[in-house]
UniProtKB/TrEMBL annotation:
InterPro entries: Sulf_transp_TsuA/YedE. It comes from the Bacteria. Keywords: Membrane, Transmembrane, Transmembrane helix. The chain crosses the membrane at residues 34-55, 67-87, 112-134, 140-158. Pfam families: Sulf_transp. This is Transporter. It comes from Parapedobacter defluvii.
Length: 166
């Protein structure tokens, strides 16, 4: 049982969120982050080649006209499930030896509301946060409006987070 100290209370609250639980305490030089840029560019190329960023493919998915996107999303979910299982089973640590903690998450009605809002925005704009930058990179600069809307939505959520059902 957690003691009622500030540090333990903070950890207990943070473990309910999907943020900050595995926050690294290591500090690296700025160029250490270039690997993320390389992986991001590679990921964007894969998105373009797999047509994940195609507005038409996304509309086909929401109209139940094609299995393409469901297959990609389904394979990502299965890969994620296997990865989390392996991390838990073998107590995998980060490349720097830090422990990876996966806290159990309780289901709540806010997840339904958030999922519906996310899906509605995805269907209306033809973009979810993952491929936004890849879409902009291919020249679909109008997606900049979607990016700014996503940033604004994140800001609003941060401002009213404490008043929402969690």
């Amino acid at each position: 049982m957690l003691q009622n100290t500030d540090a333990n209370t903070d950890l207990a609250v943070r473990s309910l969120d999907a943020i900050c639980v595995n926050e690294s305490r290591l500090e690296h030089k700025w160029y250490h982050n270039l690997k993320y840029l390389v992986v991001g560019i590679f990921f964007g190329i894969v998105f373009v080649k797999a047509e994940v960023i195609s507005w038409y493919r996304i509309q086909e998915m929401f109209r139940l006209q094609s299995f393409h996107m469901y297959g990609i999303i389904g394979s990502a979910v299965i890969t994620g499930m296997i990865s989390v299982w392996l991390i838990k089973k073998f107590n995998v640590k980060t490349i720097y030896g830090e422990l990876i903690r996966i806290s159990p998450k309780a289901f709540n009605k806010g997840q339904i509301y958030g999922g519906l809002m996310f899906g509605l925005g995805w269907a209306m704009t033809g973009a979810c946060p993952g491929p936004l930058f890849a879409q902009i990179g291919t020249g679909a600069t109008v997606v900049g409006v979607t990016l700014l809307s996503a940033i604004a939505g994140t800001w609003v959520y941060g401002r009213i987070r404490e008043k929402l059902p969690h």
